[in-house]
């Protein structure tokens, strides 16, 4: 089934201990869409500037991604520069030029109205709410957010959370949102704000999915998937959105939504995140084969499963 | 098969967000021995003072632990006071009174010479080396250490590491020992120092076992076991030693040592650690039933396993 990603398309300039890359295609919608494209039909709503070249669009098109929802606006595309030093979990932002993204007003094309699954990338909660309300036929909505919105626009974010099914954030964001330092307690507080499921991303330690009581009719026991112990993380940019793309892409590819599908989705999230960090920018996500993904899934299984 | 724990027996005074406990039985050898006692025959070498009461010894005896190696010295038992604030992974030390532990010279009773498995708790590396060299018939040696020895006695620790089979330490200690910030790379560096396997404890995220190439004839793929998402950690003291007790106790209970046994051992380590933190001191570890342990093992399995 189809999935729509709403978020940013950007040009990133990245430095890590492994090297650097200048003005490479990035952004939450980009990473999400590429990762999800290995599982299902993907559509994108985002805004780009006049510097967005045909070769950039080709990166989406080659993966069969529907780009009709990418609006072109006068000016430049969103540009971000970041440096990762020792701690690859956190980038030091060198610059943020919002450019056309500053006035992004997502418009859902008429042809996208039948979309089954929706992913709200990390943008203003007010815009996330607006998009969700526009999409009447959506079966399941996934959502990302960040510290900035949790602290600056808590009311607006609370509105968004009432309308989403799965929230995907990290440990720090979960604890900040719940104002609670114990993770499982924080998770249950966040679930009481609206989402039926919460995926907490632990970086190199994997991710845990927590469920609201009786959500999806599957009980509330959490489930934990690993991340791969990786000797060289070349570029961690986009790992979280790639995780979300693998997670939601797999869900959208399945006929039913049950506990087993959500568990496997968490594994596929980790798998796509592990590929994303192997090269700078979206390099690795552009050229995967489905066999690569299945082989990595088996590595994740062997990493965690008893006989 | 039998297992010998060499380490500290102490009286701990602990404060956590859940409450406090005064002068309760603790120490690395105590937590280890109690956790391991559910799996196999356990012996202890440690030193205590005149304040070590018959009721303290009863705690060991009730679990069938052989206490003939606990030496009584003139003076007071090792006493430690610590406070856990928000971050339950790290205690602020309020006081450390080494007392009789200051001059601890472990003496292995003749009756212990046939011991099959050895656990060297977190004591001076020179003493760990001495004990290991004394125990000629040991089949497998597990070892703990800490920042203090890594920084203060690196030469002595290097000697110890050449004599141990499995080192059990946390992420920070692994990176410090290897002088390397990437965990998998750090793990392989540590393995090149001697141990055939390295168990890295990730606190609330579980643990990973890394293997030296062809160690135990099982290949070098790592394996990861979870920790339980716990809503109330009453007292984290001793969780690491309880983990080691479950890990090594399970290994000692098995006829063969193969990859599957080591994987399950990692799960049992997490299981025993999860019990240890449910009550202050060794409270929970004194009164478990084997059924409780198996039920918790199943919870760990369901937390991580796909169908």
What tags apply to this protein structure?
307 residues, alpha/beta, 9-stranded mixed beta sheet, 4-stranded mixed beta sheet, 11 helices, 22% strand
Summarize the structure.
Two copies of one chain form a homodimer. Chain A has eleven helices and 13 strands. Chain A is of the alpha/beta class and 307 residues long.
What does this 3D model show about the protein?
Two copies of one chain form a homodimer. Chain A has 307 residues and is of the alpha/beta class. In chain A, 36% of the residues lie in helices and 22% in strands. Chain A contains eleven helices and 13 strands. In chain A, strand 2 and strand 3 form a beta hairpin. In chain A, helix 6 crosses helix 7 (183-191). The model of chain A has no long low-confidence stretch (mean pLDDT 95). The interface between A and B is large, with 38 and 37 residues.
């Amino acid at each position: 089934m189809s999935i729509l990603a709403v978020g940013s398309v950007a040009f990133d300039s990245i430095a890590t201990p492994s090297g650097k890359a200048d003005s490479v295609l990035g952004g939450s919608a980009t990473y999400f869409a590429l990762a999800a494209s290995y599982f299902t039909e993907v559509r994108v709503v985002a805004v780009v500037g006049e510097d967005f070249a045909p070769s950039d669009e080709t990166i989406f098109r080659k993966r069969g991604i529907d780009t009709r929802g990418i609006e072109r606006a006068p000016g430049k595309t969103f540009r971000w520069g970041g440096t990762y030093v020792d701690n690859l979990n956190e980038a030091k932002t060198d610059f943020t030029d919002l450019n056309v993204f500053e006035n992004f007003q997502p418009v859902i094309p008429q042809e996208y109205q039948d979309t089954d699954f929706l992913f709200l990338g990390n943008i203003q909660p007010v815009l996330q709410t607006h998009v969700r309300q526009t999409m009447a036929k959506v079966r399941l909505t996934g959502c990302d957010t960040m510290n900035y919105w949790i602290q600056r626009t808590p009311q607006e974010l609370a509105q968004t959370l009432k309308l989403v099914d799965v929230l995907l954030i990290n440990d720090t964001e979960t604890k900040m949102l719940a104002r609670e330092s114990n993770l499982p307690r924080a998770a249950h507080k966040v679930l009481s704000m609206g989402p039926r499921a919460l995926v907490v991303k632990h970086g190199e330690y994997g991710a845990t999915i927590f469920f609201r009581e009786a959500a999806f009719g599957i009980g509330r026991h959490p489930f934990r998937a690993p991340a791969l112990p990786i000797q060289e993380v070349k570029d961690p940019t986009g790992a979280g959105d790639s995780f979300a793309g693998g997670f939601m892409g797999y869900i959208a590819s399945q006929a039913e939504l049950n506990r087993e599908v959500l568990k496997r989705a968490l594994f596929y999230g980790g798998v796509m995140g592990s590929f994303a960090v192997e090269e700078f920018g979206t390099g690795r996500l552009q050229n995967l084969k489905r066999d690569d993904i299945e082989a990595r899934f088996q590595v994740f299984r062997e990493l965690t499963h008893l006989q």
